[in-house]
Structures are given as C-alpha cells and as structure tokens.
Design goal:
- By secondary structure, the chain is an alpha+beta fold.
- The chain contains 5 helices and 7 strands, in the order βααβββααβαββ.
- The strands form 3 sheets. A 3-stranded antiparallel sheet has the order 1-5-2.
- A hairpin with an 8-residue loop joins strand 6 and strand 7.
- The longest helix has 11 residues.
- The two termini are 29 Å apart.
Length: 128
C-alpha cells in the first residue's frame, strides 16, 4: 500500500476530482501508534500515540493549511496501489489521450507546446 499525506494535498491543487476519488478509495489515517508485546496480561502495550489531526491543528500555519481541508478533515490516506491506480484511471480526463501500459519511462521534459506547464514523457521505445 501507499500512504499519501502532502502528496494528497498537492493532488487537490492539480485536480480536486482526482483527489476526491483517491481519498474515497483509501482509508483515512488519523493516528500514528507504536506498540510492543505486553510484559503483562494485556496483548500489547502502547509506547506512544499521536493523533494526527490534533497535532497538525496545534502546529497550525502553513502545515495545517496544506494538510487539512476546509472542514478540518486531514488530507492523509492509506491506499492499496491497485485502488490508487484505478482511481487515477477512472478520473483521467478523456482529452489527455490513451493510457498505455508496459512502457519504460526514460525522460521527462517541459513541453513548450502547452500553455499550462505540461510535460513531455519519453519512453525507451522512442515514443512520447
């Protein structure tokens, strides 16, 4: 699986529809917890636990602005690679062309023919 935090926020800047699809396909992350096998009768002991939304809101500033949405929901998700790829394929605008598989990327360059900062991808077979 993949954990998306800052990347999920950036995805929203690129395309909010894609961000929503990825968020919906993933599991929200709200806590980091470290545990160990218990030395007592409990199945485990918690070494530490961080509640992510509270911690980020407490920090505030640019961090909170980027990782929290307008409703103070944390933009942090765990998602399986297949679910991530499916969400991306399902929300890719049709005007972007055909999706090709089994390609090996060898280069990325700015595309001077685009006005929106697009990139030109170069593949090992010579295609772009």
């Amino acid at each position: 699986g993949v954990q998306l935090n800052g990347g999920l926020a950036v995805l929203g800047l690129i395309n909010p529809t894609v961000q929503q699809a990825v968020t919906s396909a993933g599991l929200p992350q709200v806590r980091v917890q470290s545990r160990t096998k218990s030395w007592g009768d409990d199945p485990f002991d918690t070494l530490f636990q961080v509640e992510l939304p509270e911690s980020i809101l407490r920090k505030g500033g640019e961090l909170a602005e980027k990782l929290m949405d307008k409703n103070n929901n944390l933009l942090w998700t765990a998602i399986m690679r297949g679910a991530l790829q499916q969400a991306l394929v399902d929300t890719l605008p049709n005007s972007q062309g055909i999706i090709s598989f089994n390609k090996e990327l060898v280069g990325i360059a700015a595309n001077p023919q685009t006005i929106d900062g697009g990139c030109l991808l170069e593949f090992v077979d010579g295609s772009t």
